[in-house]
């Protein structure tokens, strides 16, 4: 029973660690994104410069084998790769984490079932078997849910910054600067990791002689921001006319602002509805708490 209780407590702690959203330092997240882009192979940026522990080594090997198996069967997981690229995480390391989480859930259920069997109150064998599969699947999906949630938040932040960036580029071009200089100066003017990511991408494009909009299109493809990719394609069509570029940038910035406002209003409405449901449940519980003694007295007469 002591071992069973310890296994249950460890499982609950692991579950809480997976569910609670992580809030990394934006500078650290930017460094991971940049390191993942510069690396020739997909090595976790957090592991660079320090020896891997035994658990990290096991996770890496499991992730590499799982990624090879999925790739061999034609499963690319493109959207997941884009989410991990935005967060600066390794695809193989994430798959290894999912495998380890699923294994931990299976071991947890097996330990609880063994403890109950030793105590003489164990359920029939099919019940623990089905429960083991379900819990292992849930534990394996929790890291992916965390990645999806964090990536969605990062994309909202990036879209908000992208609208401001386009306004700055448009105003800089209206002041007489060329397109390339306006892009670089506008990216360096803003603060935060989205502007730093844009500035680094544009600076690398200048250093290697790549067109800036091609670099931004590749960035949008890598991090899964469709607005940036579509913007790059639209601007390349009118690249020969400065006035058309300014008009396109201003229109895209206005569209992004309207979308950000709509998403903010939608999230506020969802939270308001959740608050109303919580208030309704609290009121219902209070009515039950007050009325139960009277109902119990009437029923006992």
Attribute tags:
301 residues; mainly alpha; 2 domains; 11 helices; 82% helix; flat
Q: What does this protein look like?
A:
- By secondary structure, this protein is an all-alpha fold.
- It folds into two domains: 2-151, no CATH class; 158-259.
- Helix content is 82%, strand content 0%.
- The protein starts with a helix and ends with a helix.
Quick recap:
The chain has 301 residues and is an all-alpha fold. The protein is 82% helix and 0% strand.
Explain the layout of strands and helices.
Blueprint: H1 2-19, H2 26-38, H3 54-72, H4 78-87, H5 91-118, H6 126-174, H7 179-189, H8 193-208, H9 212-223, H10 226-237, H11 242-300
Helix pairs in contact: 1-5, 2-8, 3-5, 4-6, 5-6, 6-7, 6-11, 7-8, 8-9, 9-10, 10-11
């Amino acid at each position: 029973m002591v071992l069973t209780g310890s296994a249950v407590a460890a499982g609950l702690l692991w579950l809480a660690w997976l569910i609670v959203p992580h809030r990394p330092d934006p500078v650290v997240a930017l460094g991971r994104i940049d390191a993942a882009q510069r690396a020739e192979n997909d090595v976790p940026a957090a592991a660079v410069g320090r020896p891997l522990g035994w658990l990290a080594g096991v996770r890496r090997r499991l992730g590499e084998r799982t990624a090879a198996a999925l790739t061999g069967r034609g499963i690319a997981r493109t959207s997941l790769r884009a989410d991990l690229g935005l967060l600066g995480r390794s695809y193989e390391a994430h798959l290894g984490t999912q495998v380890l989480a699923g294994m931990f859930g299976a071991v947890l259920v097996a330990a609880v079932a063994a403890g109950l069997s030793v105590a003489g109150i164990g359920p029939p064998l099919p019940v623990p078997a089905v429960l083991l599969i379900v819990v292992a699947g849930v534990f394996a999906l929790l890291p992916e849910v965390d990645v999806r949630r964090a990536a969605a938040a990062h994309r909202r932040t990036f879209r908000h910054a992208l609208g401001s960036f386009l306004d700055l580029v448009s105003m800089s071009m209206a002041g007489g600067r060329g397109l390339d200089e306006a892009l670089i100066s506008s990216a360096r003017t803003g603060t935060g990791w989205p502007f730093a990511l844009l500035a680094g991408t544009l600076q690398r494009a200048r250093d290697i002689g790549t067109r800036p909009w091609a670099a931004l299109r590749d960035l949008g493809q890598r991090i899964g921001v469709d607005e940036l990719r579509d913007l790059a394609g639209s601007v390349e069509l009118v690249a020969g006319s400065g006035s058309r570029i300014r008009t396109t940038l201003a229109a895209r910035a206005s569209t992004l602002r309207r979308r950000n406002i709509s998403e903010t209003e939608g999230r506020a409405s969802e939270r308001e509805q959740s608050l109303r449901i919580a208030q309704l449940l609290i009121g219902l519980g209070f009515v039950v708490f007050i009325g139960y003694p009277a109902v119990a007295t009437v029923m006992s007469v």
